[in-house]
């Protein structure tokens, strides 16, 4: 491909799967600014490296770049120790909880509560499990696509997915039991 | 199927990654096992919770416009326009040389240009087949059912390929994927014959190479056939006789 078609290809790809990229970044990094910056980095990197695209699933190729940019940011963040990774600090997760429209509307308090709950439990999961759950359940990628994004064998995807689901089910079940007396 | 096997296969079934025959066995087990049914319902409940309650964050408009702005820039900068005068004399001499040479070369040049484009396409086809063989799984949609494979392509791709299973004739449909040939996305139907994996690339008229006879490369063979009126390329490591039989089967499919 010529440079022009390459760039057109990357532009199209990035814009078409921008929500998927941002959603992944948002869940991995935990806040809006970092997620947006990571996706923008990823776009520039993809445009530069478009000739390394060797065919196959383009969305997986793009999300793999996004993920790498997110992990690079996480690594810097952890090194600087200015921010404690969200995984290891449930309080921080609470702090980062997104304010959604539902938060402000009284009659949607229940839905907001459920969202908060599931968001918190997801953020508390180790990153490895969180990302496969996001890619599979929310972005609806196939095992093969997830393996391409994570650059791991499909077997690893399957075991992480199973473990992640089990952890999340357990966490949610405990939460419900805990809150049951108060009528949730 | 026993419970242990069913438990192991459950995520695959739930995620639509299990082939049809095994899915049926799994469903038969479900009919008689309450525990496994309950486990499946729990998986489904979790998915529903995630899809309904876990926010799918939408990319902010600022990010979108940032990328759109960058995307609308011309891909390659165009500094050439600035310096025409100094090059003009040299360019003129080159043009003369080309015109003189071109007259002689036109016929040959045209022929070699086309064959160059075609060799690119055939190289892409072989490369795609090898890549698929090297990958953990050569297929994106795993199914032995033509009625699953064909609709899978719908919406993903402009070409609606003719999909037919030939397992009775020894060439079983095992799934499909999407791949790039040149810069076009094309559907690939994947068949299995004995231990041979067969890729059938359904091409558009514009990129399909015209071949008088099959091309061989490193023990693999590429042959062009017509599949429901569309040109298609078969790539496999089958013997010529088997390939020919398969080509005939495809040509008759509707």
Distinctive features:
heterodimer, A: 184 residues, mainly alpha, Rna Polymerase Sigma Factor, Chain: A, 75% helix, 0% strand, disordered C terminus, B: 254 residues, alpha+beta, Arc Repressor Mutant, subunit A, 2 domains, 7-stranded antiparallel beta sheet, 7 helices, 7 strands, 19% strand, flat
Strand tally of chain B: 7
Work out the radius of gyration of chain B. 26 Å
**What is the architecture of the domain at 1-83 in chain A at the second tier of CATH?**
Orthogonal Bundle
Give the CA-CA distance, first to last residue of chain B: 37 Å
CATH homologous superfamily of the domain at 1-83 in chain A, by name? RNA polymerase sigma factor, region 2, helix turn helix motif
Overall geometric form of chain B: flat
Would you tell me the overall average pLDDT of chain A?
81
* Structure annotation, total helices of chain B: 7
Low-confidence segments of chain B: 75-85
Shape of chain A: globular
- The secondary-structure class of chain B comes to alpha+beta
Helix content of chain B: 40-55%
Query: CATH topology of the domain at 1-83 in chain A, anyone?
Result: Rna Polymerase Sigma Factor, Chain: A
Strand content of chain A: under 5%
Estimate the strand proportion of chain B: 15-25%
Measured between the Cα atoms of the first and last residue of chain A, the distance is: 57 Å
Estimate nothing, just give the exact number of structural domains of chain B: 2
- Supply the CATH class of the domain at 1-83 in chain A: Mainly Alpha
| Oligomeric form | heterodimer
Our Rg estimate of chain A from Cα atoms comes to 18 Å
- Proportion in helices of chain A: over 70%
């Amino acid at each position: 491909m010529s440079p022009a078609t390459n760039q057109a290809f990357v532009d199209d790809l990035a814009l078409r799967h921008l929500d998927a990229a941002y959603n992944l970044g948002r869940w991995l990094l935990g806040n809006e600014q970092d997620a947006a910056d990571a996706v923008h980095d990823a776009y520039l990197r993809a445009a530069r490296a478009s000739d390394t695209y060797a065919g196959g699933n383009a969305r997986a190729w793009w999300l793999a770049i996004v993920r790498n940019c997110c992990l690079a940011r996480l690594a810097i963040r952890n090194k600087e120790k200015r921010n404690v990774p969200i995984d290891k600090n449930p309080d921080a997760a609470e702090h980062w909880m997104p304010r959604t429209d539902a938060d402000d509307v009284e009659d949607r308090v229940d839905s907001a509560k459920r969202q908060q709950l599931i968001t918190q439990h997801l953020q508390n999961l180790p990153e490895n499990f969180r990302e496969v759950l996001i890619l599979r359940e929310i972005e609806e990628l196939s095992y093969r696509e997830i393996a391409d994004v994570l650059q791991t064998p499909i077997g690893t995807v399957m075991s992480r997915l199973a473990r992640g689901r089990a952890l999340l089910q357990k966490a949610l079940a405990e939460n419900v039991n805990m809150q049951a007396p108060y009528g949730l | 199927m026993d419970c242990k096997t069913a438990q192991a296969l459950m995520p695959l079934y739930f995620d639509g990654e299990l082939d049809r025959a095994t899915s049926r066995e799994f469903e038969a087990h479900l009919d008689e096992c309450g525990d496994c049914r309950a486990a499946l319902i729990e998986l489904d409940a979790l998915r529903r919770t995630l899809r309904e309650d876990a926010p799918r964050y939408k990319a902010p408009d600022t990010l979108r416009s940032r990328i759109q702005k960058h995307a609308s820039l011309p891909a390659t900068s165009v500094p050439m326009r600035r310096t025409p005068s100094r090059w003009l004399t040299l360019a003129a001499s080159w043009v003369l040389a080309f015109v003189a040479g071109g007259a002689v070369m036109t016929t040959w040049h045209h022929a070699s240009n086309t064959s160059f484009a075609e060799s690119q396409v055939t190289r892409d086809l072989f490369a795609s087949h090898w890549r698929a063989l090297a990958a953990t799984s050569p297929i994106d949609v795993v199914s032995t059912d033509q009625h699953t494979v064909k609709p899978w392509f719908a919406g993903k791709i402009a070409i609606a390929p003719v999909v037919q299973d030939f397992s009775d004739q020894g060439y079983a449909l095992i799934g499909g994927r999407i791949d790039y040939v040149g810069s076009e996305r094309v559907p690939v139907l994947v068949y299995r014959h004995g231990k041979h994996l067969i890729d059938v690339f359904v091409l558009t008229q514009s990129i399909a190479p015209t071949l008088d006879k099959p091309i061989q490369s490193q023990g693999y063979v590429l042959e062009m056939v017509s599949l429901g009126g569309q040109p298609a390329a078969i790539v496999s490591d089958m013997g010529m006789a088997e390939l020919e039989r398969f080509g005939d089967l495809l040509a008759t499919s509707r």
